[in-house]
Write a structure and sequence with these properties.
Layout (H helix, E strand, L loop, with lengths): L9 E7 L3 H18 L3 E7 L6 H11 L3 E5 L6 H11 L4 E4 L11 H9 L4 E5 L7 H19 L11 E4 H5 L11 H4 L7 E5 L16 H18 L4 H29 L7 H34 L12
Parallel strand pairs: 1-2, 1-4, 2-3, 5-7
Antiparallel strand pairs: 4-6, 5-6
């Protein structure tokens, strides 16, 4: 029998997409691991539009053990959306995310819980010995992890590892879009969270095939740009658009001034000087970027006020 929702301590969230062959083994290992841990738990299996019988397998698992709750999305929305659904419906004080393909090991979950119990807000798994191709998977991932750590100040070896643990207040105040589920520790860092990292196992895939290819490299690069903007300028866009506008406009103004001085004092003709046209364009581009920044500032204010989204988070209050 499932525990009362007020008493649930651990929620395990697992997006599922065409993983029928892995589900029974995964759930048996979860039952064994979480049962030995001694804390009340639930497991949320989110079917992200599977086409291989995964949902039917999930229904059987739910009938066998009501701690395994199942959610079926109307179509394949992607891993981020499936994980977001899990966050919305989970009831535990701590949420743990896990892949369904058994490359992450359920037996590592107690390691993450132990770190959470030390007081950390987020604990990330580190697949130190990854069982994947170096050139197409590990090398791009290493470069991306270093870049994200540098840009965000959140030092992790493996942002892409799905096996992570979050306190409830972290996930409830982090909205996910696109493919941002990998970067939750960085996205949530503006709240002032504490982050830890533990080494976890990683196994080769036995069933099915990977959902990611080389095209993921370009998506990750674009995600990093979005992530940096969200963390540094989402509440002050004028500082990025305005600064760029001032630099471009100033460059155009200086070039224009020099050309005018040449024309007035040295009688240099501007008729065949394409640079003069370029300078005028730079001035107008600078004005446009400043205008974009002002419009973005208005949109940000409307967003925060209409959503009642706070611009701060309180850790603790006494007295």
């Amino acid at each position: 029998m499932a525990e009362n929702e007020d008493n649930i301590e651990i929620s395990v969230i697992i997006p599922v997409y065409n993983e029928q062959q892995c589900l029974q083994a995964l759930c048996k290992r979860l039952e064994s691991t979480l049962g030995q841990n001694g804390q009340s738990y639930e497991v949320l299996l989110i079917d992200d539009g599977s086409q291989d019988g995964s949902w039917e397998e999930m229904v059987r698992i739910n009938r066998q053990n009501k701690r395994f709750r199942i959610i079926k999305l109307r179509r394949n929305f992607g891993q981020t959306a499936a994980m977001s659904a899990g966050f919305d419906y989970c009831r535990g004080a701590v949420a743990i995310t896990l892949d369904a393909d058994l490359q992450n090991e359920p037996e590592d979950i107690p390691k993450l819980i132990a770190e959470i119990n030390k007081g950390y807000d987020v604990v990330s798994g580190w697949r130190k010995d990854r069982k994947e191709n170096y050139l197409t998977r590990r090398f791009p991932s290493n470069m991306a992890n270093r870049l994200i750590s540098f840009l965000t100040g959140v030092r992790l070896h493996d942002f892409g590892c799905t096996l992570k643990a979050y306190r409830k207040d972290v996930i409830k105040n982090t909205k996910l879009y696109g493919e941002m589920h990998r970067y939750i520790p960085a996205l949530a860092s503006w709240m002032g969270i504490t982050v830890s990292e533990v080494v976890v196992g990683h196994k080769p895939r036995k069933h099915g095939k990977s959902k990611y290819g080389l095209n993921r490299i370009f998506k990750v690069f674009l995600d990093i740009i979005t992530l940096k903007f969200l963390l540094s300028f989402s509440t002050k866009p004028i500082q990025v658009f305005g600064l760029f506008g001032i630099l471009v406009g100033a460059a155009g103004g200086i070039i224009t001034l020099v050309l005018i001085i040449q024309r007035v004092f040295f009688l240099v003709s501007l008729a065949n000087r394409p640079l003069f046209i370029v300078a005028i364009f730079l001035v107008f581009i600078g004005i446009q970027f400043i205008t974009f920044g002002l419009l973005a500032e208005l949109n940000i204010r409307i967003y925060h006020e209409s959503q009642q989204k706070p611009i701060y988070f309180v850790r603790e209050i006494k007295g």
